[in-house]
Specification:
The complex is a heterodimer of chains A (384) and B (93). Chain A contains 11 helices and 7 strands. Chain A is α+β, with helices and mostly antiparallel strands. Chain B is mainly alpha-helical. Classes of the chains: A alpha+beta (384), B mainly alpha (93). Chains A and B meet through helix 7, helix 9 and helix 11 of A and helix 3 of B.
């Protein structure tokens, strides 16, 4: 049985059942995450040679879509976890420490969270204040993070920081710290409009470990080759999943209207037809980029093309385009579903999806991305 | 290739010092760009992806060239020597 089928039959329904409570109480979707552990979905991105499922981008995206249609928090947590696993699996394979850690991740289905945000960097993930302090074979790393999604619930954290305290802010590396290595002191709350179940307050991280826990190479490369493509493609797919879930509920409303007056096409059906045009173009967008990424990963072992500006622009465009158009889709879905969609406790409620999707333009802000794109287009010539 | 061009001595010779002057004005490094060696990593010296775009633009202006898209990646702009080699491939190509 394929992992996607197991996710559909074992986790999706459970995620749907608890989604409203997860949202209302802004709590971790523990039931769905436990189900994902049981079917070993947390090692989907680990290469087969280390015991994982070895899923490519397209497959991981399909997992996120399936879950996002019922619980956005579960889908986002799984996506963020895959992004961290991919960073280790694509950049740590020469290190026996990381190979062994990934084998353990497969066995124990460890959940990995990301610590990229920081007080003082103003949302720029390619810049750090904190630096890792090496002392022989060991290190100390302290970081004041503005947000760590599922920080309390994770088994390990992948942290961006400067290569050394006196290195420039953009000379960054990735460091893995496990629960036994770190302490978290919560500094803010996570009481948000949407995406409430990701449980993402701010924390002060204090940690120590051994030098082998530093991911080989520089974060400049792992960001361009892995963190950015995995984030933008998996997020785009899960935002699409949330939007398609809302459209599915709106279309059930259209069908029930049609049943009341057989032989006539309700006016809401025309609006449904319009919104499905947009929904389909969103799906084709992320599927095309995921397919291109998988083809490139198969053809090019050194991932050099991903360091080029054309790819940076392509991924940024995917993020900006999808995050904006899903909001249009969910808005139209609400118009179709009407008052029944506006009610929070109706079976075709659209509110949660709407609130969740408003986060899409803000997480890695579209405004920041637009500035970067504008600057790249000063030197980039062709659309590729 | 770059050495030959320098020896030819025409107006567009790609001297490492002209590259350093561009870097000093646009790369926003943490240290004195005129004292960089040909191999020093510019990103480790504090150049960011945003400031690297300004460097690219300024190099295009200074040497009256246009970088083709396949040269627009981190490695090509990672050191004075790498920039010099890239400029040489454009001018001879």
């Amino acid at each position: 049985m394929q992992l996607i089928d197991e996710i559909r039959s074992n986790a999706v329904e459970l995620a749907a059942k608890h989604a409203a409570d997860v949202d209302e109480r802004a709590r971790f979707p523990a039931e769905a995450m436990a189900a994902l552990r049981d079917i070993r979905a947390l090692s989907a991105a680990v290469p087969r040679e280390l015991g994982g499922a070895g899923c490519g981008m397209g497959e991981l995206a399909s997992h996120c879509v399936a879950l996002a249609q019922s619980c956005s928090a579960t889908a986002m947590i799984l996506a963020m976890h895959h992004i961290q696993v991919a960073c280790m699996a694509r950049h740590g394979m020469q290190s026996e420490f990381f190979r062994e850690f990934l084998r353990r991740l497969v066995r124990e289905q460890l959940l990995i969270a990301s610590v990229t945000s920081e007080v003082g960097t103003f949302g720029d993930t390619r810049s750090s204040v904190a630096g890792v302090e090496r002392n022989g074979d060991s290190f100390t790393l302290n970081k004041d993070a503005t947000t760590i999604s599922y920080g309390r619930q994770a088994d390990a954290l992948l942290v961006t920081c400067r290569r050394a305290p006196d290195a420039p802010p953009s000379d960054q590396i990735l460091v893995l710290v496990e629960k036994r290595d770190y302490q978290l002191e919560q500094t803010s709350n996570w009481n948000t409009l949407g995406m409430r179940g990701t449980c993402s307050p701010g924390f002060k991280l204090t940690s120590q470990g051994s030098a082998e826990q530093i991911v080989p190479g520089s974060y400049a490369d792992s960001s361009a080759q892995t963190m950015v493509p995995y984030s933008h493609i998996l997020w785009a797919s899960l935002w699409y999943g949330i939007a398609s879930g809302a459209v599915a509920r709106a279309s059930s409303h259209v069908r029930s209207e049609a049943r009341k007056k057989p032989g006539t096409v309700p006016s809401s059906a025309t609006n449904l037809a319009k919104v499905v045009v947009l929904l389909q173009s969103i799906r084709h967008h992320w599927q095309a980029v995921a397919g291109e990424f998988d083809a490139l990963s198969a053809a090019e072992a050194d991932m050099q093309s991903l360091l080029g500006m054309s790819w940076a622009l392509k991924l940024n465009n995917l993020k900006v385009s999808v995050s904006e158009s899903v909001v249009q889709v969910v808005h139209q879905a609400l118009q179709i579903a009407g008052i029944m969609g506006y009610k929070n406790d109706s079976p075709i409620s659209i509110g949660r999806s709407y609130r969740d999707l408003l986060s899409a333009a803000l997480m890695v802000s579209n405004e920041r991305i637009a500035t970067k794109n504008a600057s790249m287009l000063l030197v980039l010539k062709d659309d590729q | 290739m770059s050495a030959e061009l320098q020896q030819s001595g025409h107006d567009h010779a790609i001297s490492a010092d002209r590259i350093r002057t561009v870097l000093a004005a646009h790369a926003r490094l943490d240290r004195d760009a005129t004292r960089l060696s040909d191999e020093d990593d510019l990103y480790e010296a504090g150049m960011t992806s945003l400031s690297s775009v300004n460097v690219m633009l300024a190099l295009e202006g200074e040497f009256e060239v246009e970088f083709p898209d396949q040269l627009l990646n981190r490695a090509v702009f990672s050191s004075v020597g790498a920039i010099q080699a890239a400029l040489a491939t454009i001018q001879t190509g």
